[in-house]
Recover the amino acids of this structure.
């Protein structure tokens, strides 16, 4: 797929960066309809040997995804698992030797679990690196650490059963920290082609010094900043006139393509242009959970309108329960939003950053969600309410293309976003 893209064939793939089961199931069903592969990635914060914020290690996440695939009757051999930002980031407050040892264990665990797309990210300063934390770590140090992690990955791959796929790699670091930008984000600067050339050359030299020259052929992409980003209430659009230098450089180089992070909320034409401009890997996460949240909130409004007057029915109060969970433990949003209380209340619910995505797994929120789905299953709402709150899904139900149950409605809302990516990526079958 990458080779075809570099030859001028506008094909790509959407990388789903989420652990939300509704999102992952929607991704599988979208790929089933497209007869394509599904690429699912987890970050070092999300999934690591200590559990991450999902409580899963790499093998646990793999099994979680495989169980969802079984439930959806999706072929497991059409799932590609990737590790994003694999490096010392979760342990950056520790001395570099300790942080890198944990990063090595992290990379090893991902490869052993069958993850085949590995993003090596050693760009962050550790406790003893010194220097201004607002400035990049010296590229020589970044490359040295990335090569060390590549060596760990290769050694782990050597021990896999015969016939196992060798890992492919993504390098480069010009992305936000895992979790997204803060509210004061400004339009990002586009990466200079010379910086890309420098990173590729330095990585090749580093691999050769360590006897890993053949790994260079499995570096499929380098992460760059093509000027796309989002904050809590703004989207910075792709402008190909500003990235023509990057496009021309990678087309001449022909050795790997670009991977674009934070493509959430980009317009369909922009995503299509990115694929045409040699960004065949488009990463998306918060836009998918944003769509999930929209669907759940819409169903909660339907529940209130339809069942609010029935004294025998206990409503879910899902929106209030989610808000309470975020207020009780603000760690996952307080450093990302700023403003008065009214604005913070808006941002917690509706921001592009979608920090509420970290709170859906909480037990009380899950209990409220289960009640919402049960209420609407026990008392199916009329189509007129579906028309009011989920009009696109209403049309699909009327046309006989979609079941009117809550699970199908939520998945279809998420798939609205995934279909945008499918069209942009040209339905690549890999």
């Amino acid at each position: 797929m990458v080779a075809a893209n570099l030859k001028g064939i506008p094909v790509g793939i959407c990388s789903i960066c989420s652990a939300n089961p509704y999102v992952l199931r929607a991704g599988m069903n979208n790929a089933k309809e497209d007869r394509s592969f599904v690429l699912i990635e987890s970050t070092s914060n999300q999934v690591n040997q200590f559990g991450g914020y999902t409580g899963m290690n790499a093998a646990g996440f793999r099994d979680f995804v495989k169980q969802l695939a079984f439930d959806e009757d999706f072929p497991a051999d059409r799932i590609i698992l990737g590790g994003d930002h694999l490096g010392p980031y979760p342990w950056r407050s520790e001395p570099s030797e300790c942080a890198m040892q944990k990063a090595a264990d992290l990379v090893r665990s991902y490869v052993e679990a069958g993850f085949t797309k590995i993003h090596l990210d050693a760009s962050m300063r550790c406790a003893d690196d010194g220097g201004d934390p607002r400035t990049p770590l010296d590229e020589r140090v970044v490359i040295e650490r990335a090569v060390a992690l590549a060596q760990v990955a290769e050694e782990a791959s050597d021990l896999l059963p015969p016939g196992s796929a060798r890992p492919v790699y993504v390098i480069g670091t010009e992305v936000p920290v895992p979790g997204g930008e803060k509210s004061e984000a400004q339009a990002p600067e586009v990466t200079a082609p010379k910086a890309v050339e420098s990173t590729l050359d330095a990585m090749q030299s580093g691999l050769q010094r360590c006897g890993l020259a053949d790994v260079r052929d499995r570096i499929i992409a380098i992460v760059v900043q093509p000027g796309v980003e989002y904050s809590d209430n703004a989207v910075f659009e792709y402008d190909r006139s500003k990235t023509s230098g990057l496009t021309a450089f990678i087309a001449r180089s022909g050795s790997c393509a670009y991977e674009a992070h934070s493509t959430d909320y980009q317009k369909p034409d922009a995503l299509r242009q990115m694929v045409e401009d040699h960004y065949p890997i488009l990463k998306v996460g918060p836009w998918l959970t944003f769509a999930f949240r929209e669907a759940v909130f819409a169903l909660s409004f339907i529940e209130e309108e339809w069942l609010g007057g029935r004294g025998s029915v206990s409503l879910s109060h899902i929106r209030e329960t989610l808000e309470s969970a975020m207020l009780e433990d603000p760690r996952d949003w307080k450093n990302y939003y700023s403003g008065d209380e009214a604005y913070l209340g808006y941002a917690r619910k509706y921001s592009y950053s979608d920090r509420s995505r970290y709170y859906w797994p909480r037990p009380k929120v899950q209990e409220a969600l289960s009640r919402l789905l049960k209420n609407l299953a026990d008392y199916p709402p009329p189509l007129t309410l579906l028309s009011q709150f989920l009009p696109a899904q209403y049309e699909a139900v009327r046309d006989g293309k979609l079941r009117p149950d809550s699970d199908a409605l939520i998945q279809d809302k998420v798939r609205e976003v995934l279909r945008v990516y499918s069209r942009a990526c040209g339905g690549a079958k890999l």
Notes: The radius of gyration is 22 Å. Strands lie at 13-17, 38-43, 79-86, 117-120, 168-171, 219-223, 229-230, 235-236, 257-260, 281-284.
